[in-house]
Structure formats: structure tokens, C-alpha cells
Specification:
By secondary structure, the protein is mainly alpha-helical. The chain has one domain. Helices cover about 65% and strands about 5% of the residues. It contains 24 helices and two strands. It has a two-stranded antiparallel ribbon with strand order 1-2. Helix 13 crosses helix 19 and helix 19 crosses helix 20. The longest helix has 29 residues.
Length: about 500
């Protein structure tokens, strides 16, 4: 097969070009979000910045959240000035699509280079590239809702992850600096990754102690999530779901929703704590100080762009409990359904490799464990786009856990499954009479997912799990076995 003769670099470039072409074609011929003349809700602000960047900044009222995401708009504004194009609405929106197409291709190339550096097989790299971008998030959102900075956040997260794997302090620092004005969560992830060096000493604890400690940590996590969920419910938090006149939350099933969330976090915590205790001790990495200083300075600088400097700084740094538990308990397991719908079937595939992924994170470094733990807690929110900064690491750990004897044909089948889940073939918006909701678009956003979409996509998720269970067990029994030996992680330095 001609594809087998390509070098790893050529593979990444080819995949990136196909993704960029798909995003560009969807932006040129596909539908656009019908809100704000194709700019959407938040995108209206970014569109105004791209039209008159400095003029709009002089006006009061730019929120801290928007102020920390102004860099892509500046790039579009500057690029249109260089090519001397008039900054009209359609031109500005088209420029955002072009920028997203380039960033999507760049993310694929950088992520493929990261997998090559770890020595992953061709099939594992194919599954990794598919999981990274072949989804509603990677194919539809960059063109349908182009002004959002999500794609920029994905690229920067891939770049920071490469810097972590390659132990390149400069890359992590640059990523942190750029992300502070594009997708701040990627800055926080970069600091966590840079905080610890590679494994350098003996393990923290014996296997028996690690087993007991991880079980205790899982119990504490279960209780903490259950209590936090109960407190959020007791406060009477109402999800934004109500604002769009959609189906109300399943109040009768609220205890079950909290129970599912608590079990989910407990299992993830147990695997991560056990792997971290058994992994070699890391060396503290003093180079984390550089990204941390840059992060603080630039985030504070972003706050000064608003009329009341510093207001909302804590809101940018932390996600409130209402956001996590209120939006994650609209229905039982709605956050899992939302993540599979938004990011694709790799979310389902990861259930077969939980222990392997935790050990792979520990082998990469303690910073990877901390980052994965942060992503685990934040993944309780059903608005999946908030997890983009953690998605490349998650995908990398799944790809690292793929058995080495997996065939390329299975990767091709997973690509077809991911295309089906991406719904690129489905027009994502349709209006109901008397309702301001964009029903099909919101079917991919957990807090606003109507009940019919939740049930239908939940059933599809279960069917996908059964298919992957059969396929993984048939192709390689190792897929359901214990974690692989630590020596299988090969980092090229």
C-alpha cells in the first residue's frame, strides 16, 4: 500500500492537509451558525475585534473571559490588513475559517511528531490522529462556529504536550505565553506538565501500599464528589438549559446523576493514584518557574483590557462548582454522553485502557498525572469544549496504550466510526417554532442537550462500546489485559 511507504513526517502532513481541506470545504459550502450573522454568541465579540481591534479594545465592557482570548482575533485583523482586504463580516468570518484550517493541520503535524517521539506504531498513530481531530469538535466546529478560539487552544495544547515529551522548556514557556491570550486553560496545563522532570528515582511505595492508598483515595474522591454534587443541588442551581426553553433537567434522577459522577471520579482517581505511587519518583523541574511567571503576568495583563482591571481574575483561574456539578448532573452520565458526542468514539475506546493510560501518564512524568487528574475533575462538566486543553494528552495516552500488534485495518475502521460520530454529514442547526434554541447544535453541548438527543446519543454510545469490546477482544487479547510493562514507553531524547 502506498501509504505504508510514507515517512512519519509525511503521514502527519498528509493527515493535516486532509483535515485542513475538510474544514475549509465545510466553511465554504457548509452551513454556518445562524446566530449573530454567522458569528454566534461569543463570536460576535471576536468578530468585532477582528474588524477593528484597537478601536474595540478602547470601548468599555469587554469581559475578562473574552479579554483572555483576543490573540486569534488580532491575527485575523493583522492578516487582513497585510493582504489589504476589506474587513467585512463575510471576509472576517472566512479568515477565521482559514486560520482554523491551518491550526487544525498544525495540531495534527505536531501531535504526530509527539507520537513518533514516543515510538508508537503506525496503527496507534493513526488512531491517535483520528481521535484528536476527526470529530464534531475537530471537523465541524472550526467552520460552523469559526470565530471561537477552541481550535487555537487545541493547537497550543498539542504544542505544549510536544514540549513536555521532548523536555523543551522554551516550547512550554512560549505555549504558556501565547495561550494566556488565546485559551488560558492551555497555560495552566503547560505549567502542570512543566512542574516535574522525567522519572529519576525508585517508586514512591510498595505495590501493597499503593493498592491500599489508591483505594482510600478513590473512597475520598467518591465522598467529595457526592457531597459537592449534593451541595450544588441544595443551592438550587439551575442549568443554563432552562434559558433555551428545552427539556428541563431530570430532577427525579438527580441522585443517580450524582452517583454516576462520583463512581466515575473514584475509578479514575484509583487508577491514577496507584500508577503514580508505583512509578519512579520525578525530579522537580525548576524550569516550571518560567511558564508560571509568564502565565501570571499575561493573565493579569489580559484583565487590564477590561473596564475594571482584575475583576474576574479568579473566575478565569478556576471553574466554579455550579458549572461542574450543575451542568454535569442534568441527567445521569450526561457528561459522558456529551464528551463522546463532541470528541468522538475515542472517549468510549478509552474505557478499555484505564489502567494502561494511568501507568503511561506516570511513565511520562508526574506532571502528566497531575494534568490528567485536573482533566478528570473538570470532565464532570458536560460542556465538553472546556476540556480541549486536556484532550491531546488524553488522546496520547490512549494511543500509547494501543497494543503493538493492532493492525492498520482496525485504525481505518476506527476512522470510519469517528466520521460517523462527527456528524459532518448532518446539518447541525434547525429552529423549532417558538423556540430560540439551535436544537441540533445544542445536541452536542451537554448543558443544553434536549432529552431526546441525550437518550439517542446515549444508546449510540452503548452500541459503540459493544462494537469496540468485540473488536478489541478479537484483534488482541492484550487489549483487555493488565497494564503493559513500563519498558514499553520509549521516549527518544
Amino acid at each position: 500500500m502506498w501509504f505504508s511507504r510514507l515517512s512519519p513526517l509525511q503521514e502527519g502532513l498528509l493527515f493535516g492537509l486532509v483535515l485542513a481541506g475538510t474544514v475549509g470545504a465545510y466553511g465554504a459550502f457548509g452551513p454556518v451558525i445562524p446566530i449573530g450573522r454567522g458569528f454566534g454568541w461569543d463570536g460576535v465579540v471576536y468578530g468585532k475585534l477582528a474588524t477593528d481591534f484597537f478601536g474595540f479594545l478602547e470601548k468599555p465592557g469587554l469581559s475578562p473571559e473574552r479579554a483572555s482570548r483576543v490573540l486569534p482575533s488580532f491575527v485575523v485583523w493583522a492578516a487582513l490588513g497585510v493582504v489589504r482586504l476589506q474587513r467585512t463580516g463575510p471576509v472576517v468570518r472566512g479568515a477565521f475559517v482559514a486560520l482554523n484550517a491551518l491550526l487544525t493541520a498544525g495540531a495534527a503535524v505536531v501531535f504526530n511528531a509527539t507520537m513518533v517521539r514516543l515510538g508508537l506504531s503506525r496503527a496507534a498513530r493513526g488512531i491517535g490522529l483520528t481521535g484528536l481531530s476527526v470529530s464534531f469538535m475537530g471537523l465541524v466546529m472550526p467552520a460552523y462556529y469559526a470565530p471561537l478560539t477552541d481550535t487555537c487552544g487545541l493547537f497550543l495544547s498539542c504544542l505544549g504536550l510536544y514540549g513536555f515529551v521532548a523536555r523543551q522548556t522554551a516550547t512550554l514557556t512560549i505555549t504558556s505565553a501565547v495561550a494566556a491570550l488565546s485559551w488560558p486553560t492551555a497555560s495552566y496545563a503547560s505549567v502542570l506538565l512543566a512542574g516535574f522532570g522525567p522519572p529519576a528515582g525508585p517508586g514512591w511505595a510498595s505495590p501493597d501500599f499503593a493498592r491500599k492508598a489508591s483505594s482510600a483515595a478513590a473512597g475520598c474522591a467518591f465522598v467529595a464528589v457526592a457531597v459537592a454534587g449534593a451541595l450544588a443541588a441544595w443551592k438550587g442551581y439551575t442549568p443554563t438549559l432552562y434559558y433555551y426553553n428545552a427539556t428541563p433537567r431530570l430532577d427525579a434522577a438527580l441522585p443517580l446523576s450524582i452517583l454516576v459522577a462520583a463512581i466515575y471520579v473514584a475509578f479514575g482517581t484509583r487508577a491514577l493514584v496507584r500508577a503514580a505511587l508505583l512509578a519512579p519518583r520525578p525530579r522537580p523541574a525548576p524550569q516550571a518557574l518560567g511558564p508560571a511567571i509568564v502565565l501570571v503576568i499575561l493573565t493579569l495583563g489580559a484583565s487590564t483590557l477590561v473596564s475594571q482591571p482584575g475583576k474576574g481574575f479568579l473566575e478565569m483561574m478556576f471553574v466554579g462548582g455550579d458549572n461542574i456539578f450543575g451542568r454535569g448532573t442534568v441527567a445521569p452520565g450526561v457528561f459522558l454522553v456529551a464528551h463522546a458526542t463532541y470528541f468522538g468514539p475515542l472517549v468510549v475506546l478509552a474505557t478499555f485502557y484505564r489502567d494502561r493510560m494511568a501507568q503511561a501518564a506516570a511513565d511520562l512524568g508526574f506532571g502528566a498525572v497531575l494534568t490528567l487528574m485536573a482533566g478528570l475533575l473538570l470532565s464532570l462538566t458536560s460542556e465538553s469544549r472546556h476540556l480541549i486543553a486536556f484532550w491531546p494528552l488524553f488522546v496520547l495516552l490512549v494511543a500509547t496504550s494501543i497494543p503493538s500488534d493492532t493492525r492498520w485495518s482496525w485504525a481505518a475502521g476506527f476512522l470510519a466510526l469517528s466520521i460517523a460520530w462527527s456528524k459532518i454529514w448532518l446539518v447541525p442547526h434547525t429552529f423549532d417554532a417558538g423556540k430560540p434554541s439551535v436544537v441540533r447544535y445544542f445536541a452536542h453541548q451537554g448543558p443544553w442537550m434536549i432529552r431526546e438527543a441525550y437518550i439517542l446519543q446515549g444508546v449510540a454510545m452503548v452500541l459503540t462500546w459493544l462494537i469496540l469490546l468485540r473488536v478489541t477482544a478479537t484483534i488482541s487479547r492484550k487489549a483487555l489485559g493488565p497494564p503493559y510493562p513500563r519498558e514499553e514507553i520509549r521516549v527518544r531524547r
